[in-house]
UniProtKB/TrEMBL annotation:
This is Peptidase A2 domain-containing protein. SUPFAM superfamilies: Acid proteases (SSF50630). Residues 16-89 form the Peptidase A2 domain. Gene3D superfamilies: Acid Proteases (2.40.70.10). The keyword Hydrolase applies. It comes from the Eukaryota. GO terms for molecular function: aspartic-type endopeptidase activity. PROSITE patterns: ASP_PROT_RETROV. InterPro entries: Peptidase_A2_cat (IPR001995), Peptidase_aspartic_dom_sf (IPR021109). The lineage of its organism: Eukaryota, Metazoa, Spiralia, Lophotrochozoa, Mollusca.
Length: 245
């Protein structure tokens, strides 16, 4: 669908394109504007449906006039072959199509649609008519009831934070508490090194039911009520001590 409007005092045809994210102006139309605005660099990379990158000259805020309404809007210059009214303009000014009257309604102003001078196809194919052959028309299958959009993209939250893997699933059960307490002040590769250390030396830790080192018990030796007895000095030792004196 095409409409006529003015940009910078120049009358131009505009194609209504709901697939374009922004409003575009061709380089040729921009050159016709007498009082050209200064173009600012474009900070967004625009690509076509086939994946090719658009070589845009820049962007500028320009005045668009449709009927008796004027709009100040940001326009991308260059990169396209025809002037495009994009989704941003349609959404901001709530453009509505009136197919019964063949016009575009912008804030109550009705802009008649113009016929496009471009052909959908420059060449045609006429198949040969064979005797005994009949033409059939294929029909597409339509699902009844609600359907799921398989190409639906759900936005995800971007978290600029490095997470640490503290998964204890591969750590033995009797060492999970040791691993969790040991990772409290560790980060990044330190956690992985600590996990490898525990797994490598897991046989050094007592398993449930096994006897290991503990401070839960104090061992005592009970000597009943016997008093310690002082052993007498050996006779040979006493004689040596007397000779020295």
């Amino acid at each position: 669908m095409m409409v006529q409007g003015r940009v910078g005092g120049v009358l131009a045809n505009w194609k209504i394109d709901t697939g374009a994210k922004s409003t575009f102006l061709t380089k040729e139309t921009y050159e016709l504007v007498v009082d050209k605005p200064v173009l600012q660099p474009v900070d967004i990379n625009y690509v076509t449906a086939n994946g090719q990158r658009l070589e845009c000259l820049g962007k500028a805020s320009m005045t668009l006039i449709f009927g008796d309404k004027s709009f100040k809007h940001e326009i991308i210059v260059g990169g396209v072959n025809s002037n495009l009214i994009g989704e941003d303009f349609i959404t901001i000014y709530r453009c509505v199509w009136d197919h019964n009257e063949s016009c575009l309604v912008i804030q109550g102003s009705r802009i008649p649609l113009e016929a496009s001078d471009r052909k959908m196809s420059s060449e045609g194919y006429c198949p040969r008519d064979y005797p005994g052959a009949s033409w059939t028309r294929g029909r597409n299958k339509v699902r009844i009831g609600p359907t799921i959009n398989l190409c639906q993209q759900n936005p995800a939250q971007h978290v600029n934070q490095v997470t640490t893997d503290t998964d204890t699933s591969i750590v033995p059960e009797h060492l999970q508490l040791v691993f969790e307490r040991g990772c409290k002040h560790l980060k990044g590769e330190q956690v992985e090194k600590f996990k490898k250390f525990i797994l490598k030396n897991q046989n050094c830790f007592a398993r449930p039911g096994e006897v290991g080192r503990t401070h839960l018990w104090i061992h005592k030796i009970k000597l009943k009520d016997e008093k310690p007895v002082r052993e007498p000095l050996l006779v040979g030792g006493f004689q040596c001590l007397k000779d020295k004196q």
